[in-house]
Each structure stands twice: as C-alpha cells, then as structure tokens.
C-alpha cells in the first residue's frame, strides 16, 4: 500500500457496494488482508502507509492511535464487512496480515482479528492464515503463540544477509536472525515459511546477493520472494540517491541479479510460480497472493488498505486516527473507489495473470494483442508450446521484461 493519491469516486458512508459486484461474490474465493500500520522505525526505502510511535502523537503529546486498541479497531471493520457483503458469499479461504510490523501486536490480538473473520464469515477447512514478521520482533514463544492462534504460514523480512546492505536499507535486524526465526517457526509447527529478499540495493555486489540467496536456501524455507528494489520518491533512500551519496544499479545488473536468483532457487528445488515468487511444490505457494493475481475478492482491513469485490475497488483513509474515527461513527473508512469497466477488467486480468506460471488465455487479447503475442513468441518472450495451446506464458527471458510484454499485449 504505497502512499499515493489514487483519486477515485466517493465511497458511500455505509460502504454499500453495487449489486452487480455483490452478485459475483459466489464465483471466486474470498480473502481478507489486514493491515497493521505500526513500525518501530521507518526503513529508508519504505513508502508504505506505516507509522512510528512519534508519528502518531498529537501536538499535546497524546497518542492519536494505539497498538493496544488496534485489534478492536480492525474487528470493527470486519463487522462492517459482514454488513456490506450481503447475499451468497463463500467462506474465507485466506487471511494475510501485513504491515507495517504486524508482530508488534501480541499474538493474541492478531488471533482475535482472525477469529472475528471466522465468526462472521466462516473459514474454509484448509484456510491459509499468514502473517508477516520482522525478525527482531519475534522469538520462539511469539511464534508458538501465533501458531496456537491459528496462523498456518509466516513470512519473515530477511532482505539481505550482508550487514552493509541492511544498513543502506535501514533494516533493524542483524544478519542470521531471520534464519533463526525460520528454525523457531518450524519448531512451533509452521509448515510453510517464507523469506523476503530484495536485490539491487545501492552498494550490493554480485557476491552479496549470492550470499543472501545461499543463506535463504540454507535456512530450509519452502517459499522465497525476491523483489527488485524500487527507489520511491519521498523516501530517505531516494534523497540519498538524488544527492549522489548512493548509486542505483543499472538495468543489466538488475537482470543479472534476477537470473542469479532463479538459478539458485530453482537449483534448490523451488519453482517460480510467479515472476517474483518461488515455492517448493504447489502446497507452498501463497494462496492469498494467487487470489490477487486471479482477480479474486478480498476485503482490506485497516488504514490505507485496498479491497476488491466483483470489479469494484476501493481504498481506506490512510491515517489510523481517521480510520478509527470513521468506524466509531458507524461509517465506512473508505476514502475513494472505482467501478472498473469491462475493458479495464480485461486489462487487469492480462496484467496479473501473465505474471503467474500458467499465464493468461489468448482469448483475453484483442487483435493487436494477439499479433503482439506472436511476435513475443518469435522473440523468445512467450512460450511457443503454451501459445499453441491458447495461452500466453512468459519464458525466463519474458519474466525479465514482463512489464514491456504486458504493454504490448494490451
């Protein structure tokens, strides 16, 4: 949830959705995203909607939002979702708690939010319940309590194994800590554990990146996410780059780092099922993220959280205090929304589905898009066998140029 003003139309104070959107609820899976907007410190590269304790103080020094009351605040929005999502709806199949730093809240509070979702909507028997975790905010007992609270999957923000890279990113954990967290998570009974990595940090060498990949593989996780660093305007990292203190890697270097990741992770038995995600078998794939990429329905709880149901997309007010105030008045915390046209939904299907291993159906493409797909096959960007079967599937080279491929196809 980057802090960008997206415009949009007003959200009704009741949160009411168009009848056509509600009518689609039974067609696809339903998930919940829960945003926890608190952090101990703000990382230099982060542009997400997060707040440190000092940033939540009013002029007289009182807190405008609190970790202690946040679980009840989030549950208040779950209650609103129950009122809004009327008619035929499936039980919830995935819940993802992200941030911010969700593990700044007690495991019991996170569990209460998940329990409220289950009480109001029901959970499928095999529901995937994920939380992100900063390695420095959890220990063995915390992970055991999260598992007892119903969480089935945990994702640790490792980013890098090298201290000087972590310093540039202003990450607060020490090298080796994420690997220990993986051990503790396994001991607590978590079957599925992810490590997040970032490549392309200014000052990172090929050897640094290779060491990070080696450490992630050696940790024994069944899922790895590897993202290229984006220097977002307004961050401290962007200011340092602008002043010439740091130099961003060029495109060729970033491509080489991606290829290094794919070789290392594939060689360790993990398969790329999406451009930036590798899993050890189908069971280890993030079903919540797959729900996004497949155009499923999800309700985003919390300040700045985004939601989508049946072609209606909306996003909440960003400040925790404003979010709490709207809920206290019995109003939707939605800031704005858009109802997508048929063409916009088709474009988004291509944009999202082509990122996953199965690709997107060629019949989603119009005439110019089909011609572009044929050129992409000839250029080695799309798989010829999949194309012959009616699907546009990225090759490894195509994954490197995924954004450009999508532009041509749409």
What's the architecture of the largest domain, going by CATH?
A: Alpha-Beta Barrel
Strand content: 15-25%
The overall strand count is 14
Count of individual helical segments: 16
Low-confidence spans: none
- Give the CA-CA distance, first to last residue: 25 Å
CATH top-level class of the largest domain: Alpha Beta
Average pLDDT metric? 95
**Name of the CATH homologous superfamily of the largest domain:** Aldolase class I
Main sheet: strand order: 7-8-6-5-4-3-2-1-9
User: The CATH topology of the largest domain, please?
Assistant: TIM Barrel
Could you estimate the helical fraction of the residues in percent? 25-40%
**Structural class based on helices, strands and sheet pairing:** alpha/beta
Textual characterization of the structure:
By secondary structure, the protein is α/β, with parallel strands linked by helices. It has 16 helices and 14 strands. The chain has a 9-stranded mixed β-sheet, with helices on both faces. The mean pLDDT is 95. The longest helix has 18 residues, at 67-84. The radius of gyration is 21 Å and the shape is globular. The chain has helices spanning 19-22, 67-84, 107-121, 140-148, 163-169, 177-188, 206-218, 236-242, 251-267, 287-293, 320-328, 342-353, 367-378, 384-388, 396-400, 402-409, and strands spanning 30-36, 92-99, 123-133, 153-159, 192-199, 223-228, 271-274, 277-279, 297-301, 306-309, 312-316, 334-339, 360-361, 391-392. The chain folds into 2 domains: 19-293, TIM Barrel; 342-410, no CATH class. 39% of the residues lie in helices and 19% in strands.
């Amino acid at each position: 949830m980057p802090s960008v003003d997206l415009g949009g139309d007003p959200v009704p104070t009741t949160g009411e959705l168009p009848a056509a959107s509600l009518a689609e609820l039974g067609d696809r899976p339903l998930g919940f995203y829960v945003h926890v907007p608190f952090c101990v410190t703000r990382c230099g590269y982060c542009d997400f909607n997060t707040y440190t304790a000092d940033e939540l103080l009013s002029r007289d020094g009182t807190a405008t939002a609190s970790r202690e009351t946040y679980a009840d605040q989030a549950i208040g929005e779950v209650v609103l979702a129950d009122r809004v999502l009327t008619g035929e709806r499936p039980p919830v199949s995935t819940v993802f708690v992200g941030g911010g730093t969700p593990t700044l809240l007690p495991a019991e509070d996170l569990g209460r939010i998940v329990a409220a979702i289950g009480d109001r909507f029901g959970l499928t028997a095999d529901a995937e319940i994920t939380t992100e975790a900063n390695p420095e905010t959890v220990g063995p007992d915390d992970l055991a309590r999260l598992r007892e609270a119903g969480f089935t999957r945990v994702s640790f923000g490792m980013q890098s194994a090298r201290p000087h890279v972590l310093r540039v990113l202003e990450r607060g954990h020490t090298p080796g800590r994420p690997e220990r967290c993986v051990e503790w998570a396994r001991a607590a009974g978590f079957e599925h554990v992810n490590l997040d990595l970032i490549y392309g940090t200014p000052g990172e060498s090929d050897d640094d990146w290779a060491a990070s990949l080696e450490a992630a593989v050696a940790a024994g996780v069944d899922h790895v996410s590897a993202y290229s660093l984006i220097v977002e305007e307004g961050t401290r990292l962007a200011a340092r780059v602008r002043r010439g203190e740091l130099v961003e890697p060029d495109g060729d270097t970033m491509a080489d780092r991606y290829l290094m990741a794919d070789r290392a992770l594939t060689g360790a038995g993990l398969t790329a099922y999406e451009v930036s995600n590798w899993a050890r078998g189908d069971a280890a794939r993030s079903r919540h993220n797959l729900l996004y990429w497949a155009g499923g329905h999800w309700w985003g709880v919390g300040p700045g959280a985004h939601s989508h149901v049946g072609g209606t997309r909306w996003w909440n007010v960003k400040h925790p205090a404003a979010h709490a105030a709207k809920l206290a008045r019995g109003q939707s915390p939605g800031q704005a929304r858009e109802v997508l046209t048929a063409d916009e939904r088709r474009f988004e299907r291509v944009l999202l589905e082509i990122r996953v291993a199965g690709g997107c159906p060629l019949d989603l493409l119009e005439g110019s898009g089909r011609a572009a797909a044929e050129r992409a096959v000839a250029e080695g960007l799309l798989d010829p066998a999949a194309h012959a079967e009616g699907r546009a599937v990225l090759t490894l080279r195509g994954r490197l140029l995924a954004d450009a491929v999508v532009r041509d196809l749409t």
